[in-house]
Every structure is written in structure tokens, then in C-alpha cells.
Amino acid sequence: MSESTVLKLEHEYYKQHKVLLVRALKWQDENYKSSFLLRGHNLDNAKTWLRLNDKRDLHPPLALHNKLIGESEAAKGQLDTEVFISYSRKDSDFARYLNTQLQEIGKTTWFDQESISTGVNFEKEIYKGIDGSDNFVFVVSPDSVGSEYCEREVKYASERNKRFISVLHRETEPTMMPEALRVINWIDFKDTAFDKSFPELIQAIELDRDHAHQHTVLQQRAGDWVENDRSSDFLLNLTACANAEVWRDTAQKADKQPAPTQLQQEFIQDSHWAIKANKRRKVLVVLTVVSMIAAVILAIFAFIQMNKAKTQTQVAEEAQKDALAQKKKAEKSEKQAKEQTNEALKNQSLFLSDLSRQQTEKENIVKGILLALEGLPKNSSDKRPYVAK
């Protein structure tokens, strides 16, 4: 590597070292306000510079460099943007100074010299910056109102009902201005000292800032919704939708600026309908589940009752069998008793008959006859068997 190349590289290193250190010191002096953190291509360049030079032996990056770059990377995509600055390149010095002053009092800004990385679609990043900013500050000069790029930026911001704040930097014929800028009063930085006009700009930025910020948030959410084919996945949830409806109704009733856009109103309305439809689906699901549970309970109850009836039937059948067995047993016992009785009577009759024979042989005829008669049945109720012997 030639000496001239080495010197050039060293020059670039120390130049970036100084720029970042000045920025870091301002950030430190201002109690680490997030408005001083690096963004866009400034952050990308700083990360590359740190990665390539972190191991240098001579004058390496300082701890404060590392802290600024690290904190900037950690906050990437999380910082809300209060001000988008639109200007002509011929007014760059004024615009840059205005941007620095806004950052020093804690305002987060979108400034193309700090916010657009290399190798990206410039215009797309510009529009993305407008979408994400609460206020559109336009630096008025003959060059800016005559700029095709500035005109497109104003048109894009106007279509999204952004809040316009005009800053008069150089004398400009009002008739040359776009209508969106003509209808509002500008803040005079041309004939009035900067430090006297600047508080008026801050006051305009601070005016109803919650309303302006909510306008930005809803416009971004609605834009994401459109980019994703209006998918219900990108609609507002119940709480966010309720807040958005209050914001919309308040803005319309009080004629607040910036006014809700047509897209925002469609987004809020579709979110409302989706929430109602989701509630109906939930009610239907609950009813279906309750019906299924009731059906299961009834089925279980019917099964229990069926088993109970079956058990009772089995018990009754068993009882009937037991009764039949007992009846048979009783009939058998009765038969046996009858047979025993008959046998006893029979034996008695035989015994009397034998006594009668004995008496008759002894010629006790009358006594023999009486004994024979005693062995015979007395009446129809007497079950004594007749035994011929």
C-alpha cells in the first residue's frame, strides 16, 4: 500500500474519530438524550469504522465512541420521530443547523443526511421517514418550493394528512408554494433572529403532540395492514381499537389537525368489525362447547341410569330365582313332611291292626274290632292311609 493511500486512510479515520467524538460529547453533555443517538447511514458508517479500527494500537476508538455506537444500535427502530425536515440542497447549512438545534433540546428528527444509509432506495426511505414522523417541517425558500423532490415530499405528506410546519428561510413568493404550505402561517427565520423564532417552532411541534403522535402510529399501522393485503392479522386489538376510536371521534368533533385520513378510518372500522366478529365467534364456540359438555353429561347420566336399571333387573331376576328355589325347597319339605306323616300313620295303623289280630286270636272279639276301627281313617280330613293287611 502506497504512502499516499495510507495517509488518506489515516485522514479518513481521524476525521470520523473527531466527528463521532463531538457527537458523543454532545450526547454526554445533554445527559445522554436519545435525540443524539446515531441513525441510518450514520450508524452504519460508525459501526463499520469501529469494527475496522477497534484493535488499533495508535489512537484507537475511545470508550465513549463504543458507548454511543452501542446505545445507538440498541435503540435502532425504537425511537419515535417528532420532526421530518424537508429542504432544498441549497439550504443545507441552515437545515443542518436547524436539525442540530432540535436534537440538542431533545427532539428526535429525520434528516436525510443522517437517516439514509448507502445502497438503499432513496425515495422509498424518504417516504418511510415521512410516515414515521409526527411533524413535517418545510424549510421555505425559492429553491425548495421549486424543487421537484420537495414537491413530491409535500404531496406525499399532504395525502397522509401530516401536520405541516413552514419555516421561512429566504424570501419566497407565496403563490409559488404548494397549496398545503400556502394555507398555513410560516415561522419567520428570515427577518427574525434564530433564537427568537426557534421557541415558536418548538411550541408548534409541542402543540397537541399526543394527537399528532397517535396519527403517526395509526398511519403506520394502517400502511402495514395495506402492504399485507389487509390481513386481519394486522388489525388493532380490542384495547388499541377502543383508543383509536376515541382518538378519531375526538379529532373529528374538535376538528383537530392533523385530521384522520381515509385509510386510518377504514383501518379503525375494519378493526372494529373484526373484533365484533371475533366476539360472535367466541360466543358461538362457548355455546358449542357448552352444548357438547351438556351432551356428554346427559350421555353419562343415561349410561349410569341404564347400568342402574340393568343392575336392578339383575337383582330382581336373582330375587325371583331365589324365591323360586325357596318355593321348590318348601314344596319338597312339605312333601317330605307329608310322606313322613303318612309313614307314621301307616305304622300306627299296622300296629293297631296287629293288636286287633292279637285280641281276636285271644277271642276278645269286641276289643279286636275296636282296635281295628281305631286304625282306620276317622273322617275325610284324616289323611291316614288305608292299608289292607
The total strand number stands at 5
Q: How large is the share of residues in beta strands?
A: 5-15%
Low-confidence stretches: none
Number of helices: 14
Radius of gyration: 55 Å
Which geometry do the CA atoms define?
rod-shaped
Report the mean per-residue pLDDT as an integer. 87
Task: Give a quick account of the main beta sheet: strands, pairing sense, barrel closure.
Answer: 5 strands, parallel
- N-to-C CA distance: 158 Å
Kindly describe this structure.
- The chain is α/β, with parallel strands linked by helices and 389 residues long.
- The protein has 14 helices and five strands.
- It has a five-stranded parallel sheet, with helices on both faces.
- The radius of gyration is 55 Å and the shape is rod-shaped.
- The termini are far apart.
Features:
single chain, 6% strand, 389 residues, rod-shaped, 5 strands, five-stranded parallel β-sheet, alpha/beta
Short structural summary:
The chain is of the alpha/beta class.
Please write out the topology.
Blueprint: H1 3-29, H2 40-53, H3 63-74, E1 81-86, H4 92-104, E2 109-110, H5 112-115, H6 122-131, E3 133-140, H7 142-145, H8 148-159, E4 163-168, H9 179-182, E5 186-188, H10 194-206, H11 209-227, H12 238-254, H13 262-361, H14 365-374
